Amino acid sequence: MTVAVGLGLQDFPFADATGYWRWVDLCEAGGVDSLWQTDRLVSREPILECMTAIAAVAGRTRRLKFGMNVVSLALRDPVLVAKQCATIDVLSDGRLLPAFGVGSPLAPEWKALNLDTKTRGRKTDEGLEIIRRLWTESSVDFEGTHYRLSGASISPRPVQPDLPLWIGGGSDAAIRRTARFGTGWQGGPERPDEAARVVAQIRTASAAAGRPIDDDHYGAGFPFYFGSPDDPALARSMQAYEKRTGRDPLGYFAVGDAETITARIADYVAAGVEKFVLRPVGTGDAVVLDQTRRLIEQVLPRVASRWPKPTKVAAS
After folding, report:
1. What is the pLDDT of residues 66-117, one digit of tens each?
2. Are 225 and 254 in contact (CB under 8 A)?
3. What is the DSSP letter of 94?
4. CA-angle at 64, arms to 134 and 186, nearest 5°
5. What secondary structure letter does DSSP report for 182?
6. Which of 10, 38, 183, 229 is the most exposed place for a label (fewest CB within 10 A)?
């Protein structure tokens, strides 16, 4: 198995850029697999724009991979996104992990930008086809409902010969979209039992489409916190989750010690997931850095011991 743990941010919990870069440097030095930024264009809370953020991370780091979790493609021009991804992949020497989805119909962008949520699925499918072709073809003609291209091309193209294209979402449409376009699946709010259902359905659908997805290209994410469920630092995030979903947050948040967090990872591994985006809960530089440091020092060694990476065989 190739279980790998990355870290992600939704909002911007730091006082300023100094705290953010301290966090990035800690992840780079601490053996975190990858960094991920949530996509949000319209918000009252401070949230970084994901493409800009990962481009900055590309310049700051030398080892970490990074991605967007996930880009709401129907809100963006697919040619520009293809060009941005190719540029970041080139300048990072192949460390980009692009991930795309349709976006929640409840997201604030649709109303704020006066966009029709009913078209987001078709726009996303057309955009994915355009992006995939621009990454690999020298000239792209495309005639769709929402996009039309004539002899479009980008250069330089990505340095990864098969740049990953991860798809988010757990709906039937997202499963079909992953089977048609994706090289991996990135879960969002799915709990382990829900992730198991999605993984099984994607495996069936992708095999039927003649393009099976590698077993280690299924991902999931969840918030984590070293401490007690009663800690004030958790209150805002857990209340927001419960209000949004109507669910008990402790079924999704991993709150406790290193064993609790590792056990939650194990639940997802049993469901067929091997890649993780864990989000530290809390606000302020000290809290986020402390939570991240404890994950690096206490959880990553447990993961490495429990799911050791396959040994690479040297070429003879």
Report:
1. 999 999 999 999 999 999 999 999 999 999 999 999 988 888 999 999 999 9
2. yes
3. S
4. 60
5. -
6. 229
Write the single-letter amino acid at 189: P
Predicted TM-score (pTM) above 0.85? yes
Q: Retrieve residue 133's tokens.
A: 């072709």
pLDDT digits (tens, 9 = 90+) for 35-63: 999 999 999 999 999 999 999 999 999 99
Closest CA to 70 of 239, 198, 189, 224: 189
CB atoms within 10 A of CB 294: 18
| Cα dihedral sign, 4-293-267-306 | positive
Strand ranges, E, within the chain = 4-9, 34-37, 65-68, 71-72, 96-97, 99-101, 140-143, 148-152, 166-168, 184-186, 218-226, 254-256, 275-280
Residue 3 makes CB contacts below 8 A (sequence gap 6+) with: 265, 269, 274, 275, 276, 303, 306, 307
| Cis peptide leading into residue 70 (ω within 30°) | yes
Q: How far is CA 131 from CA 14, 83, 100, 137, 235, in A?
A: 33, 9, 11, 10, 40
256's torsion region: left (phi>0), alpha (psi -120 to 50) or beta? left
